Amino acid sequence: MGKKIVADIDKGRNPEIELPVRALSNIVYDKKTCTLTMGKNVAKRYFFNVAHTKKFMQTVEVAAISKNLVEEKKHASLRDVFYMAKRTIPNTKINVVDEQNESDKAIEDMELITGCARELLNINANKMGSVAGKVVIEDSGDTIDWSKLGSGGWSIPSNVENIKFEKAKAKYIIYMEKAAVWERLHEDKFWDNNNCIIMSSQGQTTRGIRRLLQRMQEELKLPVYVLTDFDPWGIYIYSVLKYGSISLAHITEKLAVGGCKFLGITADDILKYDLKRHFIKFEENDVKRLAQISKYDWFKDNKDFQRQFKMMKDFKAKAEIQAMSARGISFISEKYLPDKIKSQDWIE
Amino acid sequence: MGKKIVADIDKGRNPEIELPVRALSNIVYDKKTCTLTMGKNVAKRYFFNVAHTKKFMQTVEVAAISKNLVEEKKHASLRDVFYMAKRTIPNTKINVVDEQNESDKAIEDMELITGCARELLNINANKMGSVAGKVVIEDSGDTIDWSKLGSGGWSIPSNVENIKFEKAKAKYIIYMEKAAVWERLHEDKFWDNNNCIIMSSQGQTTRGIRRLLQRMQEELKLPVYVLTDFDPWGIYIYSVLKYGSISLAHITEKLAVGGCKFLGITADDILKYDLKRHFIKFEENDVKRLAQISKYDWFKDNKDFQRQFKMMKDFKAKAEIQAMSARGISFISEKYLPDKIKSQDWIE
Q1: Which chain A residue is nearest to residue B123, measuring alpha carbons?
Q2: Contacts of B22 (CB under 8 A, 6+ apart)
Q3: Chain A contact present for B66, CB below 8 A
Q4: I need a labelling partner for B183 at 20 to 30 A (CA). Which of A26, A28, A106, B11 fits?
Q5: What residue ranges in B184-264 does DSSP mark as E strands?
Q6: Domain segments of chain A as ranges
Q7: Lowest-confidence region among A141-155, A185-199, B200-214
Q8: Is residue A234 a contact partner of residue A178, using CB atoms and an 8 Å limit?
Q9: ipTM, 2 decimals?
């Protein structure tokens, strides 16, 4: 990119950067790959265009920062990059960036231009989550056995690009939205008794987790099952994992865990295990969110999910994974999950 | 507690539970130990008192749940305990608990009655945070070397009571509020180059982290330095670590990291390293929070902190740790922190 700009300058041309249009109108749901991806619309950004100049400069600035990071073999967070880019252009009162969303946008542009997830540009996302199971990895010169890390497990880094899988003995991966549920399964040695890998974040799924799940799915050939609360937010966690998100559509293929399946908890689980009395009444935002999700392209023709949405709507209520504890503290690891997996009782 | 209640019943007495009063009026700032603790006011809860009966029952129910957990050697989260306690009393329409705050209160009562942190009652707090350094621990039968866990580090469990420190080679501990800063220091092998331990959460400090810091301070005899943003919220993180919090005053001695020192970032750091241009303007809630914190018993006569508060108030602005990145990505690990530690430039 730098060389092309220099060549433009040398030849007296108006320096330009070409990049795909990042707008809702250029985001398509690809039915074949079942993911949200960018369309084919391309735009040009010119240095000599008053409406483009600042963005052009920001893009080049971020490109330079990323190049330095890669060369120095160091990683920075989005916030770090913002502070590194934030300086005043000499003899002016103009800052390269004033707000973090400007450098963030420039980083997303770099992802579009290079086709690399920002992790490969050495710009990291948030760090969150834990993992345990019979897997040995190599990372930063250390050999780490995920089955020998006590009650804590391995802390998942924000950037998992350089991890190497050395050994793995597991039949599947369960990813859950709640750290407390992970601790339950971990204390019960669920991964040992059921020959699997357990992984969690707390709330939102970070890019590091998505990428790690994707890599394990592809490189270890393991199915991924998603365990969330029974509410629109839980199903959205699954949705983002599987299909990608609108804001990150340009990088879907690097993050989406295409094969993952929704394990629960489902409306049927609630009826089967008599958990209706642990319902939490829908608030208005739950109703709205459910209506939104029901209309997503990838859900609207999916009978199994539409059935779940219908039941949730009729219940006017949601339920948490931890409601299982009402049946006994280890009910989830001794009965609920083994039965679900054995009877292949998931939705996709 | 159970035996005493049974004895009361056998003797035809009104069953009672004695427990310290948990109200602001009974919370004192102990200048000698420099912590918030419970006063000496004690109240009695009677079974045959319409105003007490339900709470009495809830306390006994939670005590029974905790006893089972301890006997089964299993741990539950607050949410789990809520679901375990939430059931309808046969032949009535009355639930033992309806909302989680009822079981939470009963758990706090159990802490008061037994003098044990709820972690010892096998009821866990949230799981959060990572740690790295030259420390070897034993946990759940595994031997874990915190210096050999790749880029992720060890994921700190919610309950650290059963961890044993086998070996430790470190001169101090730095605890920071931001996982991104931890990743910066970790990538730079700060703990290796400076012979220390680095530990972080993300935002609020969990009980697991507080207890782990406390145990390391006491058992490994290591000083703890706290690194936060320059804002009232960062200083409050330090305040809770060192002095305890009002809501957990009854358990302060189990959680407070009495000796910890505030490392930064301070107003002086900002001036010294010319970071004023990275200030973020105060919002109204920042102004309010700063005023509140300035008046805390343990800060109001502390000249060093009052000086910081005054400067922050005059700046009408806050600053983030990551602002250091403006001076170079590894400025924090190569210059800022080593200089601060070397010159003992902290506040306490």
Answers
A1: A180
A2: B38, B108, B109, B112, B250
A3: no
A4: A106
A5: 196-200, 224-227, 261-264
A6: 2-124, 130-342
A7: B200-214
A8: no
A9: 0.86
**A141 conformational bin, left if phi > 0, alpha if psi -120 to 50, beta if neither:** left
* pLDDT (0 to 100) of residue B45: 93
Q: Tell me the CATH class for A130-342.
A: alpha beta
CB A314 within 8 A of CB A273: no
Most A CBs within 10 A among B74, B131, B151, hence the mutation to make, goes to B151
Asked if A180's CB is within 8 angstroms of B126's CB, the reply is: yes
Residues of B in contact with A69 (CB under 8 A): 329
Rounded to 5 degrees, φ, ψ at A115 are 75, 10
Distance CA A150, CA B77 (A): 18
CA-atom Rg of chain A in angstroms: 23
Long-range contacts of A26-33 (CB under 8 A, 24+ apart): A27/A246, A27/A249, A29/A243, A29/A297, A29/A298, A33/A253, A33/A258
Q: Which of A125, A122, A127, A86 is nearest to A103 (CA)?
A: A86
Q: What is the pLDDT of residue B159?
A: 93
Write out the DSSP string of B162-189. Answer: T-EEEEE--SEEEEES-HHHHHHHHHTT
User: With respect to CATH, is domain B141-342 assigned 3.40.1360.10?
Assistant: yes
The pLDDT score that the predictor gives to residue A178 is 92
CB-side exposure of A214: number of CA atoms within 13 Å? 23
Phi-psi region of B86 (alpha: psi -120 to 50; beta: other; left: phi over 0): beta
Tell me the CA distances in angstroms from B228 to A263, B233, B262, B302, one per residue in order.
40, 9, 8, 19
Fold of B2-124: Arc Repressor Mutant, subunit A (1.10.10)
Q: Which residue has the tokens 């670590």?
A: B241
CA torsion B155-A238-A79-B318 (nearest 10°) is -80
Q: What is the pLDDT of residues B257-291, one digit of tens each?
A: 988 999 999 999 999 999 999 999 999 999 999 99
Tell if the CB–CB gap between B183 and A124 is shorter than 8 Å: yes
Q: Do B162 and A151 touch (CB under 8 A)?
A: yes
Give residue A329's identity as a one-letter amino acid code. I
| Pairwise CA distance, residues A175 & A13, whole Å | 52
Q: Do B180 and A127 touch (CB under 8 A)?
A: yes
Higher pLDDT, B30 or B315: B315
What is the mean predicted confidence (pLDDT) over B155-160? 94
Sorting pLDDT into bands at 50, 70 and 90, what band is A252?
A: confident
Integer distance in angstroms from the first to the last C-alpha of chain B? 41
